[in-house]
Design a protein that fits this description.
It is a single chain. By secondary structure, the protein is α/β, with parallel strands linked by helices. It has 15 helices and 14 strands. The strands form two sheets. Strands 6-7-8-9-10-11-12-13 form an eight-stranded mixed β-barrel. The protein has two domains: 160 residues, Alpha-Beta Plaits, CATH 3.30.70; 228 residues, TIM Barrel. 43% of the residues lie in helices and 18% in strands. Keywords: Coiled coil. This is GGDEF domain-containing protein, diguanylate cyclase (C-di-GMP synthetase) or its enzymatically inactive variants.
Length: 421
Amino acid sequence: MSETYESGIPRETKRTGFLQSFDRQKLDPGDIADFTSKVLSFVRENRVAADALIAGNVQMLGFEALKARFGDSWEGIKDKVHLLTEGVIKRHISSSDVFLLMNDEKFVVLFGKATREKADATARKIAQEVNSKLSGAGAGMDAVSVRPVVFEVPRDDTSALKSPATLEKSVEEAQRDAERAEEARVEAAKDRMVMRFWPVANVRKRLVSCYHADLHVPEDLDLGQGEDGASGTGAVEAALDRMVLTHASRALTEAAGRKMRALLIVPVHFETVAAKSFRSAYLDVCKLLPRIAEQRMMLMVRDLPDDVPQGRLHTIFTYLSPYFSGFVGDFSLSFRRADKLGGVGLVAVAVDGAKVGALTPKAAKELKEFSVGNRAGKMRRYFYGAATFDAATAARRAQFDYVQGLGVAPSMPIHGKVFNI
């Protein structure tokens, strides 16, 4: 076994990074002449770049989550992390590609002859390997983010590539342009989306005293999301999350005016609250919430990584806790770490019924194991999206505390009424 530093970062990264630093594929931001020479050579030699088809072949690997995870210790370990990442990048890219450590939080890889799909796949393999190596240091598998950048280099104007500063500016501008384009799609389609509120059954008390907010997006509405349902930059999901919160805020205020006291669960994508830029915009909406939200609105963070570190959640929830009464974490059926996430404001762990799929004996067994395995302290278990009565019954038998979906009750245009079932 190789030695490690006290931080948990493998010691072998020092040797790997030192050797890789002399490779022609690594762009040196400290040597402008060498940087310019290598980048212009890259443009001349690669058909994709020369034909202004580099769009999508620029990939950013971000360390924002890792920096937040290590806090004040980041300055002491960042060089080791950068060297480790550099070694992994070099193992995956081809001789036609180049890369650059743009700043403390970001690597940029320019793929020369790869298609966009191949560039995406390679970047994700790089992130997966780096995440795997860093997970031993308690970083979690979301430590390194991957984001494609739609960035074109015209054949007759390579000024954007002549220095690290111009490249960084161009990449960041391209990223912002892509995000704005995705947000514009959501804005243009907002009138076709309808807010609904789903009753949530308290299984033991046979009572509905909580609702689940949901934004119905018509199936024929194209928001530019891929086959996996995700947009290129995450801006679509972030815009939808802000829209849901705005509608939920209004509904909560109206319910209070009718003296209806039901709680409200509002979903948000993990990336929306994990990425600094998206989180800032989301917090702007949070600041407009009525004060009653502090007692009656819970935030459900969707698609949380099963290995998300407690410290990571604590950092994110610290920003959000002034506005909500508590948090619900949406995990996979394999999650068994509820007892490791105490003290962060997590009041329940959830499973999405849509991801469970067909209710086979194996799925029913996994539901039971999830429920039993996450019975920590006062933590509740929440099964949402139960499409059928059988699915809702299976969740009840698996001892989930709360169940929601068409198998429980249909959605409603308003929320707030408390009733027995």
